[in-house]
């Protein structure tokens, strides 16, 4: 530990450095196009656990494609990892919300080879389990098993995101079934699978039942409830994510006529939250029945924006991710999201303890155009690689990587927790970064309590030098 006089000098120098140091959100980004041709209406990009060599891209028509990331120029493999076009709805236009919509790899994928997809069929939504080929890791076995299926009365509002949470359970986001005003009040009906976030525990191999109900699911055993429901009152949760560091759940729920919203659940919080649709759209009263607007039983969104033109709004939210990569350390803890129609891209930090947002930033000029010719638009999804670096899926057929404004975006080796600037040494520069975020959250929150304070400073000083 530093002597008091030395520590005082360090603190003085660090504070002085703040006068010239950039704000924590001042790190600018750009986009680097990694795939330009060969994809048909991509909807999502992700990685298999621990796999730094490949990205997996969904195509609406029912294919999973592989991007080989082992060379300086990523390559889209000609052979699909999985092709289930024959059982996926004909969804070949951007205006149709059906198709292959979700992909999640089992946390133990390297050993059991299991992965899960969400797709629409004729009048149904389905979650199915598949396995990779033992002979070729770039190809999956063509036959899977449908684990869950339910009727869907309309073609839109299918949700479609699936992923494993930090608890090892599979979360499934389902839209309200479609049409205007949720005519069947499905989102508030606890017997309906529609308009919900579900949580199940998939079984490893074997026959039906293909999953069990995790302990803690809020409506287990109810005579008029679905045991798989984790949360409800959602309209069309399109692209959600778990913060890979904290485990917090972020939900991007697409609005109807007026408001888009981002919902949030702190890691470890109990299930059973009601996010308010159809009586609430964002923070607005719809006047519809099903729940009571303003009721304390409803969980309000942490961020909303109106259906307006310009950089302050949009018409169809694309939920994103909290950045946890190592290439842009000043953006650690920053949530990126976009609007599909307006092509706006924003970011902010969120402090759950105080329910406050900081460093709200419009990123349009940094995101598009990219390093190459062309425009980043139709942002249908974000995605992460194994290192936590972020990608953008352009529904027109391109995949972009978000990289720092200088450098090639190659991920550096993981940094020590207190080495906030990733220079290999814990010193005054790291202290300056922490102090610039003091009292907030994000970079410098070394103990993960969403507040940068004395306990974090003690950790940093304990690692000094």
Total separate domains: 2
Arithmetic mean pLDDT: 91
Radius of gyration based on Cα positions: 22 Å
Distance from N terminus to C terminus (CA atoms, Å) equals 10 Å
* Percent helix: under 10%
CATH domain fold name of the largest domain:
Neuraminidase
Largest sheet: 6 strands, mixed
Structural class: mainly beta
Shape: globular
Report the uncertain regions. 14-25
CATH superfamily heading of the largest domain: TolB, C-terminal domain
- Strands, total number: 29
Beta strand %: 25-35%
Brief synopsis:
The protein is mainly beta and 465 residues long. The chain has five helices and 29 strands. The protein is globular.
Give a structural overview.
By secondary structure, the chain is mainly beta. The protein folds into two domains: 1-27 and 408-465, Dockerin domain (Type 1 dockerin domain, Orthogonal Bundle), CATH 1.10.1330.10; 29-404, Neuraminidase (6 Propeller), CATH 2.120.10. The protein has five helices and 29 strands. The chain has helices spanning 4-18, 109-112, 364-367, 428-436, 454-462; strands at 29-35, 42-46, 54-59, 63-68, 75-76, 82-83, 100-105, 114-121, 124-131, 145-151, 162-164, 170-174, 196-202, 211-212, 229-232, 237-242, 249-253, 259-265, 273-274, 280-281, 284-285, 303-306, 317-322, 335-339, 345-351, 356-362, 379-384, 390-394, 398-404. The strands form seven sheets. Strands 11, 12, 13, 14, 15 and 19 form a six-stranded mixed β-sheet that branches. Strands 2, 3, 4, 5 and 6 form a five-stranded antiparallel β-sheet that branches. The chain has a four-stranded antiparallel β-sheet with strand order 1-29-28-27. Helix 1 (4-18) crosses helix 4. It is globular. 45% of the residues are buried.
